[in-house]
Amino acid sequence: MKGLDARKAAWDVIQAVGGGAFADVALERIFNLYSFKSIDKGLITELSYGAIRQRYYLDCWIDYLGKVPAKKQPPLLRWLLHLGLYQVLKMNRIPPAAAINTTVELAKTHHLKKLAPVVNGILRSALRSKERGLLLPKSNNPSLELAKNESLPLWLADELINWKGLEDAKKIAKAFNCISPIDIRVNRLRADLKEVKEIFDSCGIHNKVIPNCPYGLEVRAGVGEPRKWPGYEEGKWSVQDRSSQLIAPSLGPLPGEKILDACAAPGGKSAHIAELINNEGNLWSVDRSSRRSKKILANSERLGTKCLQILVADSNELLLKNPDWKGFFDRILIDAPCSGLGTLARHPDARWRMTQDKIQQLVAVQSQLLNSLAPLLKSGGKLVYSTCTIHPEENSHQIKNFLQSKSEFLLEYEKQIWPGEGDNGDGFYIAFLNKLKNQ
């Protein structure tokens, strides 16, 4: 049956993520195991990522249409129903008959033969509801409605409404469910924006300049694998979200300075700093993971950023192991480990991984990093703290608490970037701090 292999692959990804795997890792594994054409890879990505992203919404439909609640269904059946329901309810380009027939066929041929009539019945009921314009039953709880309609954990829907009010919360939640374009940053050491744009144009890769990103180009998602685009192997550009492209310039790095990137892997921001100082300076890129540090090295070699010194270490222990680093650095970037709540559009499984307890653990990690690294900055030096989250406790509250305990630091500015506002990309936070002289 046409399209069955691609749908089976998507189902495998959904199952793997349901069992705890990361979506990007599960998807890459499938692509490495089987030889799919680019068009099939695009379909597999859309089906798997879409169904994972819409998990709660699809569960609500199973609860509404089925006799057994979604979470009590056998996992194999639950994830197969997600695959079928996503196509029926969310994808207009796939004919409903094809969506239903292929899903039922997968049930028959992959250990769910006796439950194939259940699959058929639920999917056809969903199609009838869609054709009649019927929606899920409404509740009087705004948070529950937001969580259900935009497929969010209830705690996150609650928080969004508390932070931004209901209307803005809806905009942000909708942005989480949009397929993000692919943003790239041109490497000024190897090329310029005009050159890369012309290369893309000549190859039929539709692109446009990103506002307020001097080296940024936007490419529509679904046009192939970026690593195979012209200029990638030659190090002329990197994939980097437009919000993330603001971090290194905010540090204001200058040639000849001593700079620390304290949580550097996979190395995108280190490379950007090196590009901005034209490889003239000393840049230490630190990460505690040797595996992730290898990515910094590979990235650096491809891009030609020769001023990097890669160090595998715990940034909290840098002063202990290098006492002469007290007051040593002109600038420090702490792109801290965080909940990643600003990147849910790109990471469909992240919303289901994160919990309020995990966020509190991350807040403690971030606080420790700030306090451990502050002594390494010289008087008059600059520190940038950034995250890819929108949670105030990890961002503005974190910096407020730090400043209350560190009188020698002054907040120059801070910026919270919210998804769904204007031409914004991912949600990010940036705080720029000065360390006062003679303190």
UniProtKB/TrEMBL annotation:
<comment type="function">
    <text>Specifically methylates the cytosine at position 967 (m5C967) of 16S rRNA.</text>
</comment>
<dbReference type="InterPro" id="IPR035926">
    <property type="entry name" value="NusB-like_sf"/>
</dbReference>
<keyword id="KW-0963">Cytoplasm</keyword>
<keyword id="KW-0694">RNA-binding</keyword>
<feature type="binding site">
    <location>
        <begin position="263"/>
        <end position="269"/>
    </location>
    <ligand>
        <name>S-adenosyl-L-methionine</name>
    </ligand>
</feature>
<feature type="binding site">
    <location>
        <position position="335"/>
    </location>
    <ligand>
        <name>S-adenosyl-L-methionine</name>
    </ligand>
</feature>
<dbReference type="Pfam" id="PF01189">
    <property type="entry name" value="Methyltr_RsmB-F"/>
</dbReference>
<feature type="active site" description="Nucleophile">
    <location>
        <position position="388"/>
    </location>
</feature>
<keyword id="KW-0698">rRNA processing</keyword>
<feature type="binding site">
    <location>
        <position position="314"/>
    </location>
    <ligand>
        <name>S-adenosyl-L-methionine</name>
    </ligand>
</feature>
<dbReference type="InterPro" id="IPR054728">
    <property type="entry name" value="RsmB-like_ferredoxin"/>
</dbReference>
<comment type="similarity">
    <text>Belongs to the class I-like SAM-binding methyltransferase superfamily. RsmB/NOP family.</text>
</comment>
<keyword id="KW-0489">Methyltransferase</keyword>
<dbReference type="InterPro" id="IPR018314">
    <property type="entry name" value="RsmB/NOL1/NOP2-like_CS"/>
</dbReference>
<feature type="binding site">
    <location>
        <position position="287"/>
    </location>
    <ligand>
        <name>S-adenosyl-L-methionine</name>
    </ligand>
</feature>
<dbReference type="InterPro" id="IPR001678">
    <property type="entry name" value="MeTrfase_RsmB-F_NOP2_dom"/>
</dbReference>
<dbReference type="InterPro" id="IPR006027">
    <property type="entry name" value="NusB_RsmB_TIM44"/>
</dbReference>
<feature type="domain" description="SAM-dependent MTase RsmB/NOP-type">
    <location>
        <begin position="172"/>
        <end position="439"/>
    </location>
</feature>
<dbReference type="Pfam" id="PF22458">
    <property type="entry name" value="RsmF-B_ferredox"/>
</dbReference>
<dbReference type="GO" id="GO:0003723">
    <property type="term" value="F:RNA binding"/>
</dbReference>
<dbReference type="GO" id="GO:0008649">
    <property type="term" value="F:rRNA methyltransferase activity"/>
</dbReference>
<dbReference type="InterPro" id="IPR023267">
    <property type="entry name" value="RCMT"/>
</dbReference>
<dbReference type="GO" id="GO:0006355">
    <property type="term" value="P:regulation of DNA-templated transcription"/>
</dbReference>
<dbReference type="InterPro" id="IPR004573">
    <property type="entry name" value="rRNA_ssu_MeTfrase_B"/>
</dbReference>
<dbReference type="InterPro" id="IPR049560">
    <property type="entry name" value="MeTrfase_RsmB-F_NOP2_cat"/>
</dbReference>
<dbReference type="Pfam" id="PF01029">
    <property type="entry name" value="NusB"/>
</dbReference>
<dbReference type="InterPro" id="IPR029063">
    <property type="entry name" value="SAM-dependent_MTases_sf"/>
</dbReference>
<dbReference type="GO" id="GO:0005737">
    <property type="term" value="C:cytoplasm"/>
</dbReference>
<keyword id="KW-0808">Transferase</keyword>
<protein>
    <recommendedName>
        <fullName>16S rRNA (cytosine(967)-C(5))-methyltransferase</fullName>
        <ecNumber>2.1.1.176</ecNumber>
    </recommendedName>
</protein>
<keyword id="KW-0949">S-adenosyl-L-methionine</keyword>
